[in-house]
Amino acid sequence: MLYANGQYSLEQFIDDTSRVRSVERLFVVFIEAMAHLGFDRVNFSVMRDMDLDASAQGFGLISTYPTVWQDYYAHNGLARIDPVVKWAVGSVRPFRWADIEHEAELTRRQRQFLREAEAGGLYNGIGVPFPGPKTLRGGIALATSVRKARPMENLDVLAAYCHHFYAVYKRLVPPGLRLSPAAASLTRTEQEVLFRLAHGLSNEIIADRLSIKAGSVDFHVQNIFRKFGVNNRTAAAMKGLMGGYIEL
Prior knowledge:
The structure is a single chain. This protein is 48% helix and 13% strand. It has 248 residues and is an alpha+beta fold. The protein folds into two domains: 10-172, Transcription factor LuxR-like, autoinducer-binding domain (Beta-Lactamase), CATH 3.30.450; 188-242, Arc Repressor Mutant, subunit A, CATH 1.10.10. Strands 2-1-5-4-3 form a five-stranded antiparallel beta sheet, with helices on both faces. A hairpin with a 4-residue loop joins strand 4 (123-131) and strand 5. Helix 9 (203-210) packs across helix 10 (214-228).
């Protein structure tokens, strides 16, 4: 499998997406386009885009990652240590996951995370962030299911596919009430709960740490879900990190 096989040009991708009339069809076209370029592992997330309705945001809006890896990631709360996410928050250009190890000071657990991702079937990873005026809007993570592949030399070309996809996605999503800072603001207690939630703590442990009842923690967690437009703890943690609500 090659990263770039020359069989599907950016011009053809733009032409194909110009005829798309639904988000579902756009996802299919994009997954097929990435497969032509050699990437059969795709994860698309929108965490904090003020131009989009909350219903159009979330973690893993597209995910062709192995189900076993997705379950492992969610069950162990790996969003709190994921070095790819942390690197993407401060990036404006596409990057190779392998470069993170050489350019960032990673903890032993973060290095282990990268090895676990490979063991889970994610090789030759590349991140394409969608930076916003203040923080990361979201991004696309790409990988291959095979270890040996010819690297794509110009990541900006790959980013062009991804950014065009994102522009079409924003054009196609249904209109609605836009997410505003007031609608997504968190109380001090909600921030404290979110911080501990992102560290993978249970409601019972969070309650003990904050000296409140477990039922109160669940109340705050549900409020966070509602404000962020998500329905699980991993997505809430990712949106909290990317939106700048918390730092780990």
